[in-house]
Each structure stands twice: as C-alpha cells, then as structure tokens.
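Data availability excerpt. The first of two example chains:
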Amino acid sequence: MARKLPKKDVVIIGLGWTGSLLAHELTDAGLDVVAIERGPWRDTSTDFSPTQDPDELRYGIRLDLFLRPAQETFTLRHNIAQQALPIRWPGAFIVGNGVGGAGVHWNGHTWRFLETDFTLKSHLTQRYGASALPEDMQIEDWGVTYADLEPYYDKFEYIAGTSGRAGNIQGKMQAGGNPFEGPRTRDYPLPPLKDTAPTALFAKTASEMGYHAFPRPASNASEAYVNPLGIAMGPCTYCGFCERFGCGNYSKASPQANVLPVLMRKSNFSVRTECEVLHINKHPGGNVATGVTFVDSSGEEWDQPADIVLVCAYGLHNVRMMLLSGIGQPYDPKTGEGVVGRNYAYQSAGAAGLLFEGKRFNPFVGAGSLGQCIDDFNGDNFDHTGLGFVGGASITTSNYHGRPIAMSATRAPGTPAWGSAWKKQVASTYQNTSAVAGQGSVYSYRDKYLDLDPVYKDRFGRPLLRMTFDWHENEKKMTRFIAQKCAEIGKAMGAKHVTPRSLPDHFNVVPYQSTHNTGGAIMGDNPKRSAVNRYLQSWDAHNVFVIGASAFPQNAGYNPTGTVGALALWAADAIRNQYLKNPGPLVQA
C-alpha cells in the first residue's frame, strides 16, 4: 500500500530540459511544484569538475552517465511477424540518467525545424500530389506552425546561450546565415564558434560548388554570457569533450548550467531523486489524473497527489508511461486505430568518410556543435520530382572531438583492424581524417510503432516498451542520394579516400547511430490520429501534458533539442495563461 504525500499543484516526471523549463515557468506563476527523477542528483561543480581530466573510457565507452538496461531497457523487432528481444547494452541510441537527462550529455546542436516540417503532410501533398507518397507513409501536420513556435525558439536559444549566425531576421536575409530557415525575431545571443581547419575547408568548398554554407547553431557558448535568468556561462575552451560528457566549464547549455541554479533556490520547488514513477493515477471517471505513484530507492511506494501531471521524461519513456497508465488508446497497426505508440520515427544518416594526406586537422580542438553546414538538401528545400523519395538531410563537416579510443576505429580502405599495420595506420591518419555527414529525416509508417511487450518485464513486473522498426525504402533512397552529395563535396575538398555510407538493408541496434527517437505520443489537431493536442495536452486526461520529442509526428533532418525546448516553453505558456484560468481541454475534440 503506497503512503500518501501532501498534495502539490504540479508533479513532473523527469528533471531534464523539459522538466526544468516547465518547473521554472510554473513556479514563477506561483504553483507548488515537485519533480520526481529516477536517476541521481548531478551538479556541475561536483560531478563535472574542471579540475578532473575527462575520462573517455569511463564516459565515452563505458557510458557512466547513461541508463543501464537493468534499470530499464526496450525490446526490438523489425516487423510484427518477429519475436522482439531485449536490448542488452546501449547501442544505436544511449539514454541519459539523472538530473539534467540528455541535457547533460548532448553536443549542443540547437536547430529550428523548417517551416514546412510543421505542415509536412499538407505541403508534400500540395506540391507533389498524394500519389507521390508511399501508401503506408503516415506523416501528419503538427497542429502548430513555425510562426506559433518562433517566440519560444527564441526564448530557448537565449536561455541556452546559443551561438550562431541568423539567416533570416524578420524576413530580411542575412549574409553568412542559413537562407532556408524561417524568419526569426532577432539574431542568436552569441556569435558563431570559431572554425577549425576541416570546417573552414568544407565551408569554402561548398560555397564554391554553389551551396549555402553557414555555421551550425551551437549551445556551446562562444563568449562569456549571462542568460535572461541571470545565470552566467563561461566561454567554450574547445576541449572536445561534449558528447557523452558533462561540461565543467559552464560552457555547454544544460539544465545544470542554465536553469537549475535559479530553480533550486525557489521555496515552491522540490525534487525527489532516485525515485521512479510507476504509473500515473487516474480518477475513477478516467478523464483526469490525480497524481502519480512512485517507488523510492529503498523500495517503498508513495502516492504523490497533484492537480497537474507533466510527463517530461525521455520520449520513449513518455510513451511507456502513457501505456502503463492507460491514458490514450494504444495504437493498433492492423486497424490503424489508436494513438499511443503511433508514428514512431528515428534519425537517418548518409555520409562520406574522408581521408586526406599531409593535413594537420588537430581534431582534439573541438566543441560539441562546432561545424559548417548546408541545408540545400534538407527537408523539401530541393525539388524531389523524379527522385523516388521525399525528405532530406542537413549536411555538415564538424569538429567535435578527437578522442583517441573512438578515433582509433578510423581506417583507410584495405587496412587491417588490428596488429602493427593497424597501429601504424592509426598514428598516420589521426591528423588526416574528417567527414561530410548528412543527418536525415525519418518519416512515419503504419507498421512502425511502439507498444508494451507481452513477454519481457522490468524489475517491478511492468511490461517493457516494444519497438517495431526497420528502415523503409524512402529513407534508404534518400540517404543514398545524400551520401552521393557528401562524397562529391569530400572529393572537391581534396580527400584522397572518400567512403560513402548510407543506410543498411535493416536497422541494427548494435552500432551507435543517434539518440533521436521521436513520436509515439504525437501532437495534432485530430484526437483520432494524435495523442496530445497542439498544447501537448492529453486528449484523454486534460490535466496531463506530455512534453518532448514523443510529440513529433515524424522526424526532420535536424537534432530535436531546440524544438523540444520550444515546445516545452509553448506548453508552459498555455498552462500559465489558459489552463490555470479555466482547467479543462484547451482544444475541443
């Protein structure tokens, strides 16, 4: 029997980017907020002290900051005819654990999605006709537009201290920025990061080829900065330890560096760490939540009543929590009915590995989001007529790390994978290696979805989340096209060896690819095809809001964090200025 705690105005499941932003906004509105976080407390000064040398083996290889399968894992199958099996070690994607969540270990890529990404189904149908789309493709419009989210993109970028160069300010194009981006209110709060040799070479070459190069937006502070919450950031030192690491220099945006120093001082906010929410509790009537039940580190169960429940965990966990709690009808791929688990998507990649001769790239001088990009082949920025696919990718040469263990895997064609010849090759290629990489969209399909596994359970006896996913021909064709473009740029850059890479025949969960899982609790304007409305409010229980990349109806050719941050602030505004005045559905079903 769970012990009952005093009621709160708001309970938040997870204290990463979304949980921290919503907690800050709602405590400012005077609400009493508690966050429940499964992992440990993490603090910059004690957990990521700059007096300690970064340990690649501990953090980059053994994944010290990440969720262990013994805590929670997923099962995977390629199609419904297969038996799903548990993922025994983090491979294709790695999930954060603890306060800060993925905001601790990310690189800092801070994109705004394209205007057409938010109206994708309407746009593609209008431009190419419905017959141009695969019959089983299940893309949707988001229910919000870029214009709706622009003020919240802006707010997130200024909280995060994002470095970059605008391409479009209030409709006026800006030299050196991204000409394909939607209009923004103002420029980034900080100028771009400094280029390194490979990123400068890419920008020069791409521009000579007629493309539009621009610096990648980075929530790595290019200069000292104080954000709107009054929190100071230090300038990036280009140490190359961003991805999979916490930043001890307060230079990479994270909840710890940009929100928590203010939030943790508020008397109307508290956090319970190392406590796992088992399920959301519902009123017997079913259309409203009453709070959550969680278990603490000693194994004792607690009931936390609350007027509002915010589901702010990692996207896959958000979906599982809704399924475990019976909020929203589970998706059935056979009938196409149901909403929770629908439209799961991932991230694709088409790239070209580059090996030069006689270069000195100094790859150890890097920052998480340091790179030069082109968007000429992203989304629908180019004509897809006759190509046999839709979608695209942002194409980049980056300089984000030179970590020796990871870099030792780079080999010239024909070089052995071990022995003296391999050692000689590692020594000779370390300074001469680069890549042109395309991060691509993945669109949604009827047969790719999330549900509860009927066989495998976690340590509390709850079903694991089952992923049914494999690559579709649309994405395979798109990444082959992108890999060819990457190879053409790499050859023009002067690389001696150019190795194109696109998607394999089947999705493989073993090698790392991307932690950008999206969908499963998607937003939209139709309760029969979406789990949450345009404000990320559950259609099924009006006091439950589900925040994160789980809301994406499909994935774009960008990292999701900037859009996740904007959606969190958009939802917070709706709760503060609409829901609190008149609790109930903000959109009529």
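And the second chain:
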Amino acid sequence: MSDFTQTLDTDGLATITWDCQARPMNVMSKQGFADLNALIDGCLTDPMVKGVIITSAKSDFAAGMDLAVIAETKDMHPENPAKGCFEMVMEIHQILRKIELAGMDFKTKKGGKPIVAVLPGTALGIGLEIPLACHHIICADNPKAKIGLPEIKVGIFPGAGGTTRLVRKMGAMAASPYLLQGKLCSPSQAQAAGIVDAVSTTPLEDAKAWILAAKDTDLVKPWDAKGYKMPGGAPYHPAGFMTFVGASAMVNGQTMGVYPAAKALLSAVYEGALVPFDTALKIETRHFTSVIMNPSSSNMIRSLFLNKGALDKGAVRPKEVPDQSVRKLGILGAGMMGAGIALVSAQVGIEVVLIDQTQEAADKGKAYVADYCDKGIARRKSTPEHKEALLSRITATPNHHALTDCDLIVEAVFEDPKIKAEVTQKVEAVIGPDCIFASNTSTLPITELAKASTRPDQFIGIHFFSPVEKMALVEIIKGAETGNRAVAKALDFARQIRKTPIVVNDARFFYANRCIIPYINEGLRMVQEGVEPALIENAAKLMGMPLGPLQLNDETSIDLGVKIAKATKAAMGADYDNAQADEVLFWLFEQGRLGRKSSAGFYEYDAKGKRQGLWQGLRDHFGKEGGNLELLDVQHRLMFAQSLEAVRALQEGVLMDVREGDVGAILGWGFAPWSGGPLSWLDMLGAAYGVARCDELQSRYGARFAAPELLRTLAEEGKGFYSHFAACILSAAGQVL
C-alpha cells in the first residue's frame, strides 16, 4: 500500500496526501519517493490537472527520512558505497527539482503548474525539504508544530536540497541558525523568518485560492530567475565576504574541527554560492556523501538518534511489569537538586510533595521553581497562568505524613550514609507498602544504602545530574536486591519527565562518575608533572570535550573533589593510586581556591564570577622546564582515561548494554559527541590499535592504562564493541530523521 494517494476535484486541483498507515508520523522511505515521483509525473502530464497540493492526512506533515534509505544507498554499490549514496541522493534531487520546475519551459519560465505544500503540523528534515521545493508553503495555525532542519544535531546536514535552497532563499547569515544549530521554530516564527509563506486557519482553502490565482512568474524560484542575487551577498560580494569569513571562524571555533557535518555544510554553502543552482545541488550531494561515509556521522546517528531513541522508548525496561507511571511524587530535600526534580516533575503534571526539615527550607525549594517560571515569563516562553498551575502541583512542607499516598519517593538529602539511613527509616514508616523508594546519590553504593530499608527489593538509585532541568540523562542504579518493579518505576518516571535513562548495576561511582573522575584526575596528574595547564585544557577541547578537566573541576568545586578523594582513599586503602592528582587538588584547597563558587580555583574570576584565565600560581608552583608533552599524548591520556573505565564497567557488568555506555557518556558528561561515545570511539580507532596504544601509555604512565581483557579479546577477534555485542545493535529500519 502506497504512503501517497491522490484525488482530483472539480476545479482541476489535485491533492497528493501523505499518510504512512503503520506509523504515528509520516516518514519518507525509498518506495515513498518512487510513489511521490509517479504521482507528480501524472499530475504534470494530465491536462485535467491545473495545480497540485501536497499535504498530510495526519496532524503533522512529516518527521523526516527513514534512515533505512541511507543504509540502502550504500547497498546500491557494495564495492563503492559512496557512489551508491551519491546516486541515490541525486535521484531525490531530480524528484524535488521536478516539483520545483513543475513542467515549465526552462527558457521562458512559462507553462508550469503551481504546486503548494500545506503543512498541518510539524515538518522536519525531508518534511521541510519537500515544501522548500514547492512554489508556496502554507502552515496551519498550529502553535505546537515544529518547523526545521535538525539533521546537524545527529552528525549530518540537510542533503536533499534543504541546505542550498534555504541559503538561496534567506541568505547565509539568516539561514545559519536553522542549518548549523538545527533550530526549530513554530509556524508563526517560520513565517517571520521567511522559511514558509503563510500561516492560516484554513490552509487547504487558501492553497486552492493561491493556485487558482497564480501566474507564471509566481512559480519561478528566485534562484531560477534572471539576475538572481543571494540575499546578504555571495562569498566575493563586498556585503557577503565578511559573512562567509566570519561563518568559517565561528564554525571552526565552536566545533574545533572535529564535527565533519558542520565543516561539510559550510563548504557546500560556500562552494554552491559560486555556481548555478543545479551545480550547487551536485556540490551539496558530494559533501553530504562524504559526511555519510564518515564514521563520526554514523556513530553520532547511532548513539544520539537510534540508541537514544531506543532507550527513551524503554529498550531496557522489564517487559513483564505493567505500567508504573508516577502519580504522586515525594521528594526528600528541597535543595537545588530536590527543587530541580520537583520542577521537572510538576512540569509534566505530576503532583509533588517537597519535604525539608523546616517550612522555611521547603519554601525555599518551591521558590526555586517560582524563580525558574519568572525567568520563562520574562523571556516570553511562559505565562503567569502556567506558573500558577505548576506551583499548585507542589506542596512544600516539613510534615512527612504528607507522603502517605505517594507512589514514588526520591531522597535527595546530604551525601552521608547515616543521614540517608535515618531518612529512609522515617519515611518508610509512613508510606504505603507499594511505594518505591529511590536515592538520588552520585557516589554511595545503593546496596549499602538499601540495608536501612525493610524492603530492599523496592529500593533503587536514581542519579540526577545538575542542573536537573537542563541535563538530559538519568542514571538508574540497581542494588543487589532491587526488583524489576522498582526498575520499571524508575524508567517510567524518567520517561514521564522526558529524560533519557540508563540502567547500571551497583558499583563505586556507578558509571558516569566512575568515568569522569579519571578524566579530571588525569588532568591533575599532568599539572603535577609540569605540563602547561593551557595545553591540557585545549587538548581536551580539540578532542570535542565541552570542558577541559581543570575547568570541570572548578565547576564541580575543588572541596567536593577533596571530599571524594578522601572517601575513596579510605575505601580502597593500598589500592588507591591518585597521589599525584591529590597533590594538586589538596594544594589548591589549602590555598582557599575552591573553584567557581569561591571565584578562585584553577582559573581566575572577575567580580561577577566570569572566568578570566588560568591562574598563574598553578604554573609557578608546578611548572617544570621541558615538562610539556606532545599534543596527541595529552589528548590520548585524557580520552583513554575515560574510555578504558567505560570498557571496565562493561566487562564487570556494571554496564549491561553498549548503547547505554555511549549514550550515557555523551549526555552525562559530554564525552566528545562527534565520536558517538567512548565505546564507539574505540571502535573507530580499532581494538588492535587501542590495545597497542594502551600498552604504550601503560609503559610510560602507569597501570591505569592497562588494556582491559575485553578490549584484548576484541582485538584478537578483529571485532568492535558493536559487532561483538551484536544483539545490542539496532536496525536503522523504522528510525527517522
């Protein structure tokens, strides 16, 4: 059954309706393109058809491209996948160009049939690229709809003409937020920006009226008209020259050259602006093909789109447990973390009881939510009515009896086992027998905390990342006795509050902190060795890390690092081997430099708390002549420190799924998103190279770089993590972009 159908009315207007029966939203498949092409051919050759409307039978227009199309392009020429990709995309261009020219005589620009896109709702990716090829775009007045080209967010860029058309329609500067940032907008915002032509409460009627009134000149796209000039100026026009120079500097400054899609997009725009439109489409296709062939893009698509989507939909949820959606949530501790959890829960309609020791402390947590709402109102992203409704869902009180009918408790009190044990016992005395108890701890073993509970099977860890309202990841920790219903409850709660969950088994520091602490410590070790601090920080950023290890230490606070170091040393005893890192950390602590919160740490800060630069005292105290390393050595020490911990976590069963290892790393601490995550990065390097490099690093820097047995096994097998754990790999079929 075709995803496209056609009807013809008495006025001679054909309506091509897109409706993927088996999907909640329309997605474009290879067969879909063939069907659309056939219908367009029929309309253009049928003398009874005066014009065409392309619309959707669903409330949205389209969610994007079925990623199976991209996979199929490589299969067209197994011996030369790039050729297959290029030819497939050029076929798509031919279809959209056919819509654009609509049967007109190309020389006279006359005789074409008007084609209008009517978008009832969201139109993303190819769902906007098709309308951009039409002669007129009308959106329904649907404020919930999102219009845009989000491909850059998962490592590719709009390759079906969206890049070339949007730049030629708006100019490079105006188009850049939508192409380079993947910015989405509402229909009214899209109209104001010039992406669509109209917003209407009666879009189909308006489309028919536009077609019946259209003249030949209305069908000619600006870039097909004689004397076309790019808005804002072409690359070598005085007005456009600085735009392109600035864009290049901006993209390279933001991406550090490690994101191939951004560089390829900019190249396609720059080169395409120098040639006729059809040649520009071919240039766009060449750059798009190069990105598709790049393993970075494949990894980003897999981790940030396929794997993240699967985890969001409950890929690791116990299947036998019925729905455990949270009705009423109790939060113990109204500090920044507890208040943040209350905020995101109330935002999705969950009733919240926010508990603290005093009414004043509880009210302070609720005030955090009110302040957040006020900022949204000031930016015109919220309303006083929304604020009132949200706050009405939160009850702030010191009375534990208010928790009686809660079905989930999240404890977010001070990181002290004794305090947490007291709170657990106090709360279990008043909550119902089916209530699940979750501890929001970042370091304390869940199995030990659960010993204070009379029902350890209903005790689980839910590790939120700060600030809760901004961070996308939730780490769910299973204790030794945690039952499946508790796991399902935590996962369903994460889905409700729109967070991506990973589930890990209990171990010191769980997964995220287990990997990020070695990254920080490796930076500190290099400072102690006399390596220039700026080299350490910039080496990290050149690998795509959002923050260097020293800045990250400032952000999380140096005194917290000291506390964790002391506790870890006490727990590990003779096995503790971070003396080098501790020397730097403890010395800064003794200097009273506690990080950003004290406006003094590894960095200097001005009176407003703005970071100024690395503190010279660091160089003066630890600097050694000849202490600097080669850039690659610094980068690999920082990257392998994290990645090897991820491998060990998988090897030891802390991680249970390779997908969670990569998605958790990117969303949890920002591990080089261009790589697809630490396990994907090692797959890019190859296990054999990874082992050889580990051996080199171990011989020079210590046993912490010893290659885990799992990595050695992969090297012997000639496999990567995703091929070795084949059951965890998702098929691209059915996934859309």
